[in-house]
Write a structure and sequence with these properties.
Elements: E1 2-3, E2 6-7, H1 11-26, E3 33-42, E4 54-55, E5 57-70, E6 75-80, E7 89-92, H2 106-117, E8 126-132, H3 142-157, H4 164-177, H5 186-193, E9 198-203, E10 208-213, E11 219-229, H6 233-251, H7 265-271, H8 278-302, H9 306-322, H10 329-339, E12 344-350, E13 355-363, H11 367-382, E14 387-390, E15 398-402
Parallel strand pairs: 6-8
Antiparallel strand pairs: 1-2, 1-14, 3-5, 3-15, 4-9, 5-8, 6-7, 9-10, 11-13, 11-14, 12-13
């Protein structure tokens, strides 16, 4: 992955520096283990995962590193290299409860809690240093990356025997029930099950999935970070989910479906009047049409029809902007600017919404123009500096090495 045209550090270089810091903080004795868990970007299929539809995410080569060592007592010591000013945060297995004061440690604590809920209580503490190179608030799933990282570490250290799909589900369960964010399964699944150079075509209604190759011959995937995150994202996300669930219940009075993803566009149009509120009708329309767009987009990609894939990405953004109303002014500026650049095949918002990032497919010979045009235009219109990432698709979470 490159940021502003510069190569980012390799896993090897990154872990060596982090192990050195770990030893400074916690001492060098004992077995020190290194893990990595990626971020993710969703190419198409947004806000369909909790509506029983399809998604098409991929894991990235940027993510969250974990350097860890098991302890013989019940003490837990956390340290984030990103928030070094907070120092080492001490807690214990007797204090696995959510609190606002716990900050970022609520995510790993939630996984410890979820393991106990699923029948595998953790019986000794550990020292953990984490470092993430996912931009904060970017919508590239830093929380899911941390959750799956913690799950992978605990599963390994305590030999719990969970599969990677189990760990994805535990991450979602933790975020829903410990952290209070009513997210779907997509983020954790992509982080856990990522595969190099492939996106995951996932049916969230039953967790069946297929890998589709995303080796673009003459184009790149470019993520543009708006550097904006509106703080209504969590509450609005839960509100959208509630609206969708109410619309589903209304539709279920006239048609036999388990989720909005069960409907074709034609079936939705035939039954939409069962949804009494026009806002809820728009939310349901997005979920139904976005699911069908995702199915068509994957078919197009498998047929090497990248142009059609790009048009479906554009239509996805319009629906997220107008029907689901999870975009914002800054993101719309980025997408409009992207659409104006020759060589941009498609561009849309990605992630939960209300800021964060766009994802674009850009022809190789247009990438420099894209970065210059979109960056300059965005600065002029919003006074914010965008960041650009030309991304590589990587593998899911896993063990890296035992430190020397």
């Amino acid at each position: 992955m490159t940021k502003g045209g510069k190569p980012m550090k390799s896993n090897t270089m990154q872990t060596e520096e982090l192990v050195k810091k770990f030893k400074e903080l916690f001492g060098g004795e004992g077995k020190i283990l290194c893990y990595f868990s990626p971020g993710r970007v969703n190419l198409i299929g947004e806000h369909t995962d909790y509506n029983g539809g399809h998604v098409f995410p991929c894991a990235l080569t940027l993510g969250t590193y974990g350097i860890v060592r098991k302890r013989q007592d019940n003490k837990i010591r956390f340290y984030s290299h990103n928030f070094s000013g907070l120092g080492v945060i001490d807690t214990s297995l007797d204090d696995i409860v959510y609190s606002q004061a716990a900050g970022w440690t609520n995510y790993p604590k939630g996984i410890i809690w979820a393991f106990a809920e699923k029948g595998h209580p953790i019986d000794s503490g550990f020292d953990l240093l984490i470092y993430g190179n996912i931009p904060n608030g970017s919508g590239l799933s830093s929380s899911a990356s941390l959750e799956v990282l913690m799950g992978t570490i605990l599963n390994d250290m305590f030999q719990c025997g969970f599969s990677m799909i189990d760990l994805a589900c535990i991450g979602q369960y933790s975020e829903n029930n410990f952290n209070g964010m009513n997210c779907g399964i997509m983020d954790q699944f992509a982080v856990a099950m990522g595969k190099k150079d492939c996106a995951i075509f996932l049916d969230t209604s039953d967790l069946s999935y297929d890998y589709a190759s995303v080796k673009l011959e003459d184009a790149k995937i470019v993520i543009t970070n708006s550097k904006v995150k509106h703080n209504l994202v969590d509450s609005a996300y839960n509100q959208r989910r509630n609206e969708s669930e109410t619309a589903l219940a209304e539709l279920q009075t006239v048609v036999d479906i388990k989720g909005l993803g069960d409907l074709t566009e034609e079936e939705f149009e035939a039954h939409k009047d069962a949804i009494k509120d026009p806002v809820r009708q728009k939310r349901a329309r997005h979920a139904v049409y976005e699911n069908q767009r995702t199915i068509k987009a994957v078919e197009a990609l498998k047929s090497n029809d990248v142009e059609t894939f790009g048009k479906l990405m554009n239509a996805s953004h319009i629906s997220l902007r107008d029907d689901y109303e999870v975009s914002c002014e800054e993101i719309d500026v980025l997408v409009d600017l992207a659409w104006s650049v020759p060589g941009v095949i498609g561009s849309r918002i990605t992630g939960g919404g209300f800021g964060g990032c766009t994802v674009s497919i850009v022809k190789n010979d247009a990438v420099d123009t894209f970065v210059e045009t979109v960056g300059k235009g965005y600065k002029e219109k919003t006074e914010h500096e965008a960041e650009f990432y030309i991304v590589d698709i990587g593998d899911g979470a896993g063990f890296l090495k035992e430190a020397n």
